[in-house]
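Office hours follow-up: a student asked to see two folded examples consecutively, so here they are.
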Amino acid sequence: MKTPVSGPRPQAPRTSETPKPTQAKPRNEVKSAPQPKAARSDTVGVSQFDSAKGRPSNVALATPVASPPPSGITPGSYPTAADVRAIAAMKDPVARNYAITQGYHDLSDAMGKLVGSENGNWATFGTWASKQAGVSIRGEDMPKAFTDVLKGAGGLMGPLSKADDFLRKLGLPALPLGDIGTAGQDALSRVSKEIADGNQFVFNEIGQEFARFVDTFKGDTRPDATKLQQYLDDFPKDKPLLREAFSHYADAMFEKDPNKKAELMLLANDKVGLHEQTQLTPYVERALNAPVKETFGNILKQSVEGAINALPFPANLAGKAALKSGAVDALLKPVVDGIAGVFRGIATEHMMKLAVPGGALKIGNDLPPPKGMESTLFPPHLRTIQNPELKALLGKLDKSPDSLKGTAAKDWSKLDQRMNYIIDLFRSRQSDPHLFDQPFGRSATYPLPTAPR
């Protein structure tokens, strides 16, 4: 599947001399309607993700990208690889998440000084994903109406009714929805733990690579092929996507054509994202599958066993025989499977969100266009794709090329659904400068005093 390409691509001048900076044309084949100007007092510090009325339009750079000056990265302003490991070793999951989120931001900021802040890098997006993970880690988004959702779940009514009929024949009460609701809270806590563990794992692995990139190339003013090769040779053999991604970041450092630079950044971001999500698959599956069935299965089995044991002899004989024969387990399996399916949908709807400056995006819904890009969808330098490798990657991962329709992830446990959402998230939001905003409104100095050394 190929990613459609429309409209002319702006060409960089071909000359034997170094071209003088000129006003480069972005890929703006499709123009959005003019947006009304908002008052200055209403726009200061406002995220361009915010879709509230009166917000300013997204603005992407349309000027040639100059070679970066010496980085000017202050020592201690970003976590080194050793700092990343120390933060990942923190035992308190809440404190650790705060440190991880801030660490991503500071790595993102340092990367911006190297490759340019006109395009967000993967750590830029990682800042906000980690901030949203903190909401789940702290248990701040537990759905309040879990049992109400269960009562309205049409696909669950058949197995529940069958189970209740069977229990009544044994002289037992119906399955306790109240206990199921309590089990839902426990299941959500398990999901939160898996989110915390995944947050820790990814930061420890990928955060170190961003720190190593900054340490290696800060202060460089021109490409150094030997230095780059030595840097790439230090990647483990089992992480080819990360090696390729950081090679693209290195190429983007000195790329002057804004279209090519934006595509190199998107290609790098997508490859880091694919590596990350592949590594996260076990955490996601444990969060949304096995713990749920185990939790609900245990609570229902305990409720039925308790009710049977409470019956006097000989009324309890039929129930005990049903337990021993496996009839109760067979009866509860479709109920547990149905509850797990309902829960997985609730978890995707309520917990699987992505925090962005000024709000949050629901992963279970299609991505909304950025404010001011309702008709163009993507920033000017990414409206058409020319990089062959990027086109091929998008062709494999994007289920609705050049569109935001069909991006919703109905089941976040599926890698293809996660990537279908993420690649369009990266492409549509890559030029939003508010991604570089401080996640907590304050800066940090490394090493962190709370992180173990």
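And the second, which I mentioned at the end of office hours:
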Amino acid sequence: MTGTMTAAVPRTLQAAVELRGVSRTYGSGTAAVRAVDRVDVGFPRGTWTAVMGPSGSGKSTLLHCAAGLERVDSGQVLLGGTDITSAGDADLTALRRDRIGFVFQSFNLIGSLTAEQNVALPLRLAGRRPAKAEVRAVLAAVGLGDRTRHRPRELSGGQQQRVAIARAMVTRPEVLFADEPTGALDSTAARTVLDQLRAMVDSGQTIVMVTHDPAAAARADAALFLRDGRLVDRLVHPTARAVADRLVALEG
């Protein structure tokens, strides 16, 4: 089923994250590049949204702005209705630690730590002493209950990505952002990771995922399409074929 060209969430619905007129420019003068250009979009609670578009369309920048990893030049970013646009560095650090989870394509695990220790790290950085049972329960939830003492080099790519997801889950964030979470995985590992993300959404989690893969986007509830930093289209209940057709049209 195809949605309308606008991707804004109606104001009557509570968005987990909302961007209002957000722009982000790199460089200055004739070298300036507007990576995100006056984007209005909301991501409803308990949904999974895929963000797509040609290379250089602003996908990752949009994700980073929404997650508070980059500051916007103009507009507003709201998390659960709270304006975080002008939050200071300390507040943003606490925000990313307590209310936001982020999964990167490159996993970003610490090689000297076990899976259990990697997952516990965000809690320790927050000044908590995590219970082993709590950490192991999260690893078990991603199918790695028998890999708690393994270090990253002892795990496959798919297993490492699941550790990264468990690390993002352990703080119970309001929103999980994922930047190409299956981009470095083979098809079997990618399917396992996508199954886990789907299970998280079905249990009430909100996920915003950048991907270039139509099959991955087809697992989401909606797909948004960017071109030249602008939001140009939206599909509800996307299929891989419909997503692929839209990407071809955008790149053409």
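Two things to take away from it. Residues 187-202 form the longest helix (16 residues). Residues 76 and 162 are 32 Å apart (CA to CA).
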